[in-house]
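Q: I have 369 residues here and want to know how they pack in 3D. Can you give me a structure?
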Amino acid sequence: MPRIDAFLKLGLAQGCSDVHLAVGVPPMLRMHGDLMPIKFRDLGDTELETYIGEILGPSQKQQFQDGSDLDFSYVSEDGGRFRVNVFRKETGVGATFRFIPGEIPSLDSLGLPAVIRELCNHHQGMMLVTGSTGTGKSTTLAAIIDHLNTTRNANIISLEDPIEFVHRSKRSQIIQRELGTHLTSFADGIRAALRQDPEVILVGELRDAETISMAMTAAETGHLVLGTLHTTGAVKTIDRITDALPGEMREQAKSFLAQSLNAVITQTLVRTPDGRGRRAVLEIMVMTRAIAKLIMTEQTHQIPAQLQTGRDLGMQLMDQALLDGIQRKELDPDDAFRYATDKSAFSRFVTDTSVIAPRPDMRPEDSAS
């Protein structure tokens, strides 16, 4: 058994989401958002490189020796599945292992708003799930794919880096392809998928202009495209897409977004009141004629007002979702305060006043008011 499995087994027993291994510090576990060391010695460079080498194949070892970071999935001997990133830093090697549950969650088990299920009824266009790294985007997309797999007779092609949740075909056919193993780039994967008679295409990340352009083409030609971006809100998502493309494609991008973008779902993870878990909190933008007009006239800064007043369509701002979660006693008020944009609306719920720290540019009389 690879010696690294002992750390992974311990992490799973503790209920962690990630295991971090780095030279010069003991192994660390990500527990409900916090990083905590385990009782173990500081890892040495040669020691850790040996541990990691035990789970790499010949081609991966060569890539790593040539200076490349590695992204891959790993199944321990105990059956735990992990998404792995291996890298080098100033003091030596490092690795992060993210636990992937064996059971694919449902939309209901994640407690996602009912509008997500309604958005799955689209048969073409683009739906984006956005957020920072580690906010559960992959889990939400896995639940969406499982819902489609359960309710549709469709050919679903999933392009991932790496493959995380493993789907079994139900009513749909699920084809999962991995970057670096089955395809050289997401753009090439989309180009190939368009020749494979798909109804749904999932793109692991819209990370460059070519991938965005190919995803737009797929959405415009009668396919449902699901994708992710590392953006924190609908406005930033729309701006990222238009800014990523060459200037001569800006008008085309605006037209695409106005006509073919179905929704932007932005999420973060916030602690529950008992501190023993985290819950996904979503900002949701559903495309309407009013929002489409704001995109075309480059007035995206007015979109948050549309989200605030569009609750009957399932839309909500992140602050609205956070406030609702606090009032339903589903979220820790102190943690929710950290993610809020307009923090003044949350101050009265905070129990740990240390989180309400005055800004560096604030005068003493301002913080007292």
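Q: Anything worth noting?
A: DSSP finds 14 helices and 13 strands in the chain. The mean pLDDT is 93.
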